């Protein structure tokens, strides 16, 4: 865990109470390794485009998709589940339907210490307030219903 990761983890409660822009900035500037859950190898899918965007903007990205585990998605390694990703994961970016996001968030909470997870991000249209509350209670910074490919340029971060 880097100094930025530790600061994010320590400040999670304050950041979750702060404005969305403050939370987004803290997460995007404090995290370097991102797991994109639900990443698709199909170039026309939003998950693929966002994964490639994050790579182009200097993030260390891994894909998580059980249907493509052992292969690559947009030239990054793909794993079946978060627990299979070697090394740390600072942020979990979820491209799953809202009714399936909770299971991913619960896995991230379970792996928080082992993987150094400090943040949960759900993509546009993905909202699970109950799971987000569990993540926040576990000390994770939570951003819902946003896209980093929109937020980075909007906030002047990339």
TrEMBL record:
PANTHER family: COA-BINDING DOMAIN-CONTAINING PROTEIN, CYTOPLASMIC PROTEIN-RELATED. It comes from Caenispirillum salinarum AK4. Residues 28-126 form the CoA-binding domain. InterPro entries: CoA-bd (IPR003781), NAD(P)-bd_dom_sf (IPR036291). It holds the Pfam family CoA_binding_2. This is CoA-binding domain protein.
């Amino acid at each position: 865990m880097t100094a930025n990761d530790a600061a994010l983890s320590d400040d999670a409660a304050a950041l979750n109470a702060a404005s969305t822009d403050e939370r987004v900035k803290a997460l995007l500037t404090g995290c370097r390794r991102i797991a994109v859950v639900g990443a698709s190898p199909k170039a026309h899918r939003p998950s693929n485009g966002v994964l490639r965007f994050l790579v182009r903007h200097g993030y260390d990205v891994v894909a998580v998709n059980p249907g493509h585990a052992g292969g690559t998605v947009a030239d990054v390694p793909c794993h079946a589940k978060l627990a299979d990703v070697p090394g740390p994961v600072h942020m979990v970016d979820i491209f799953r339907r809202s009714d399936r996001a909770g299971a991913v968030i619960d896995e991230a909470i379970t792996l928080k210490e082992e993987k150094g997870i400090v943040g949960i991000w759900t993509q546009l249209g993905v909202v699970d307030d109950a799971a987000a509350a569990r993540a926040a209670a576990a000390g994770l910074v939570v951003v819902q219903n946003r896209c980093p490919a929109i937020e980075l340029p909007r906030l002047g971060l990339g």
